[in-house]
Design brief:
Blueprint lengths: L19 E14 L2 E7 L4 E6 L4 H8 L5 E10 L14 E12 L16 H6 L1 H4 L3 H23 L3 E2 L17 E3 L7 E3 L5 H9 L4 E10 L10 E11 L3 H19 L5 E2 L6 E3 H7 L14 E2 L1 H4 L5 H8 L3 E7 L7 H13 L7 E5 L2 E3 L1 H4 L3 H11 L6 E7 L1 H18 L7 E2 L1 E5 L4 E3 L6 E3 L10 H7 L9 E6 L2 E8 L4 H10 L4 H15 L6 E4 L3 H8 L30 H6 L16
Parallel strand pairs: 3-5, 6-9, 11-18, 12-19
Antiparallel strand pairs: 1-2, 1-4, 2-3, 4-5, 7-8, 9-10, 10-24, 13-14, 14-17, 15-16, 15-17, 19-22, 20-21, 22-23, 23-24
């Protein structure tokens, strides 16, 4: 017999009754039933109930065991009868009557319990992550992640993609966040950077003649943490294709993502079928107030600026006259809600930095509410028609200028749909957001800057760059969004040196700067580069959605905390002076803040 186990803790069934078996695992829980001691023994695969009979020398040994100690049990499989069966366990029809027990490793008193569903402080869980990962929900999340990655890999291979590995030590590159730098010991004063993405290398692979590349790529960004972003490192399904249009990229990725979500979503859930909707960026900001629209939300924002222009409602009339916008967020069937419902939303808007949240309630004879009292009846009716509303419905308003009012109206759209319980349940709704602006105006400097990925191909190519207002040029850039979560950005790449140089020139980077910072890729393009494009869906966010976890750290094996610290391994940590000297580094640490004198 094997020294540790003949079966795992999920394997035993009624047909094993009478067999002598050996199991090893962790003591998940103990229950004393008047001389009989029951142990739930847990391993990676499941749980089996162990019975320690009274009147044996095993009982005293078992009673001394702390939960989470590791033991090996040998005994006979016995069928459980009637109410003793546990239908919640795959092994719940049997138990093992122990006749030998060996302690492999004794556990100390736990910092928190593995059994049960209690909530514990995140930093405590991260410090003892190896214990936290024993909890069933966490264990299942990490196993789901592994299965999702395997599925993504298989689906890409089936579509003719080849997996390559790009460098981890590379040169610094402006990808929108700070690099993690690695000092080069053999090259004093110089540094490698950990890649924020394999962007340039995957493009160079296309120049090298490989046609369909992918990898499950680690990426490193020194940026702040948030619920849907892990500080430090993350993983993405990175892929690139040669001789493709934007539609070709969509045609590849749509069945991969839809297939994975169908594979790992509970039966009965709804998932976007067929081609995902394509929504131009300008339409997304107009209709949804976000470039990450949640299509489970049925509400469509409407521009009602003209209905208030030169109207009797002075505040909105003034905003319209000064070039601002008034946006209407429909609220179907909200008209019968009590006054407190509207007051609550008004207070919420003020807490979120707005002046308030005006509204109109529609009745058979017209509108009511503070705005309707000061607005001409025909204008109230015009707003109702524009929004497609009827008696018993209501509408809320957001007013202001530019992106500020667009984004706030999007926040209101989400809030109203949530309060009215309008968001579709048990569904994953995908869409592509396309036609992102190539450039934007930097509010701080007043100068033109890249708005998205600087390596994207501008729509219209060199002619557009030379003849159009830069702020009117769109790029072949796209994001894929699911339930309001951005899973990926991507683009058809700028593969022509003259177009790349001109694109950077408009953003204020002279040819010498481009040559210095991107010379490797620019020179490669001079030796014949195919048209190419790709995308990189975030693995962490995919798993986060599938696991229905609001916090991305719940689906990562060993994540950093919100401050970018590994509390378990105590990183980052100081380095001894000799090592710094070897790397030719000297520290210039910030001075400690003075403490207040008593």
């Amino acid at each position: 017999m094997h020294p540790y186990r003949t079966h795992d803790c999920s394997a035993l069934r009624e047909e094993n009754a009478g067999q002598i078996v050996r199991l090893s695992g962790w003591v998940h829980s103990k229950r004393d039933h008047g001389g009989l001691l029951f142990i739930d023994l847990r391993d990676h695969y499941g749980v089996t109930q162990i019975v320690i009979p009274a009147g044996t020398d095993l009982l005293e040994k078992a009673e001394r065991l702390r939960v989470e100690s590791v033991i090996t049990v040998t005994g006979k499989v016995v069928v459980r009868h009637g109410s003793q069966r546990n239908p919640n366990l795959p092994t719940g029809d049997v138990e093992v009557l122990a006749d030998a027990l060996e302690v492999r490793s004794s556990a100390e008193v736990l910092p928190f319990q593995v059994a049960g569903n209690e909530n514990y402080p995140e930093d405590l869980r991260l410090k003892y992550r190896y214990i936290d990962l024993r909890r069933d929900k966490m264990h299942q999340n990490i196993m789901l992640r592994s299965k999702v990655i395997t599925s993504l890999r298989q689906r890409m291979i089936e579509q003719g993609f080849t997996e390559f590995q790009t460098p981890i030590l590379t040169a610094s590159s402006p990808e929108g966040a700070r690099d993690f730098l690695v000092p080069a010991r053999l090259h004093p004063g110089k540094f490698y950077a950990l890649p924020q993405a394999p962007q340039q290398f995957k493009q160079l692979a296309m120049v090298a003649g490989f046609d369909r590349y992918f990898q499950i790529a680690p990426c490193f960004r020194d940026e702040a943490s948030r619920a849907d972003r892990s500080p430090g490192e993350f993983y993405q399904l990175d892929f690139e294709m040669s001789f493709v249009t934007q539609e070709d990229v969509f045609t590849v990725l749509e069945p991969v993502l839809a297939g994975v979500f169908n594979e790992f979503t509970p039966e009965g859930w709804k998932i976007t079928d067929g081609a995902f909707p394509r929504i131009p960026y300008a339409d997304a900001m107009r209709d949804y107030g976000s470039d990450k629209p949640d299509l489970r939300n049925p509400l469509i924002i409407k521009d009602v600026t003209d209905a208030f222009r030169d109207s009797g409602f002075g505040l909105f009339a003034k905003i319209a006259a000064s070039g601002g916008q008034i946006r209407a967020i429909p609220a179907p069937a909200a008209g019968d809600r009590p006054r407190g419902f509207f007051d609550k939303l008004n207070s919420w808007a003020r807490e979120n930095g707005a002046g308030g949240l005006g509204y109109i309630i529609f009745e058979e004879e017209g509108g009511k509410g503070p705005i309707a009292k000061n607005l001409e009846a025909d204008r109230v009716e015009s707003i109702r028609e524009i929004c497609g509303l009827k008696a018993g419905d209501a509408v809320f308003f957001a007013a202001g200028k530019g992106d500020e009012v667009a984004k706030f109206s999007g926040v209101v759209r989400t809030k109203v749909a949530t309060e009215l319980d309008l968001i579709e349940k048990n569904a994953f709704r995908f869409c592509w957001v396309v036609d992102f602006p190539m450039y934007e105006l930097n509010e701080e400097t007043g100068k033109v800057d890249f708005s998205h990925n600087p390596f994207s191909m501008p729509q219209g190519g060199l002619e557009a760059l030379n003849t159009q207002d830069p702020l009117t040029i769109n790029a072949y850039q796209y994001d894929i969004v699911c339930n309001g979560v951005e899973l990926s950005s991507g683009a058809i790449r700028n593969h022509l040196p003259e177009v790349m140089l001109r694109a950077f020139e408009i953003a204020g980077y002279g040819p010498e700067v481009v040559e210095e910072r991107f010379g490797g890729m620019l020179n490669a393009f001079r030796y014949g580069a195919p048209p190419h494009g790709g995308a990189a869906p975030g693995v962490d966010r995919i798993v986060m959605l599938l696991a229905d976890e609001p916090n991305i750290r719940e689906v990562i094996l060993f994540p950093l905390n919100q401050s970018g610290e590994d509390l378990m391994m105590e990183a980052p940590a100081p380095v001894e002076p000799a090592r710094l000297k070897e790397l030719h580094l000297a520290l210039d640490l910030p001075k400690p803040k003075p403490t207040a004198s008593k």
